[in-house]
Design a protein that fits this description.
about 210 residues, mainly alpha
Length: about 210
Amino acid sequence: MAVHQPTHRSSGFHLPPFRRNHADSAPGAAGSAEAGTLTVRAYVFASARVLMGFVFLWAFLDKTFGLGYATASGKGWVEGGSPTKGFLGHVAVGPMESTFHSWAGATWADWLFMMGLLGIGLALTAGVALRPAAFAGTVMMALMWVAEWPPAKHLSDGSASMSTNPFADYHLVYAVVLVALAAVSAGDALGLGRLWARLPIVRDHAWLR
């Protein structure tokens, strides 16, 4: 039995011209989309950096001038108050309780704490020296975590610690965010990170980046 062949033979499947053009431009479009994604990501991290900087700067300003928030009016550092005496003096739990009590109100502790807040806040806001800021901020957050000692269910006097989580609290979250901001060079957008990176001393010492 003979098989009837179609009169018109197919020359094969060909993409229409507009599809070929679309295919040829795909790499460029993909690159543009990727660049757009990177730009959005950069600005998201930059926004997080500025907000985190304000957290540290506000703490410095409030403790320095007694703006009436965490530090009562008239109790500011410039008015003779101690930025560390209240917090460290009231530590009531953890392995470093007595050590923190001995540090509370010490001049060196006040200066180190306040300069840390100011330096980290300025670095984050400006987008420069993010690696040193991340290191200093992580150390500060670790010490504050130990001072509050979330793993404890009870304070030294037996009362409830009111800890909401035995490990993860905002101090650890802040520390991780600081490290992340430094890792992605979050100062390059909405900041002076690129100019900072061009300085000879920064080029020669990457840890200053």
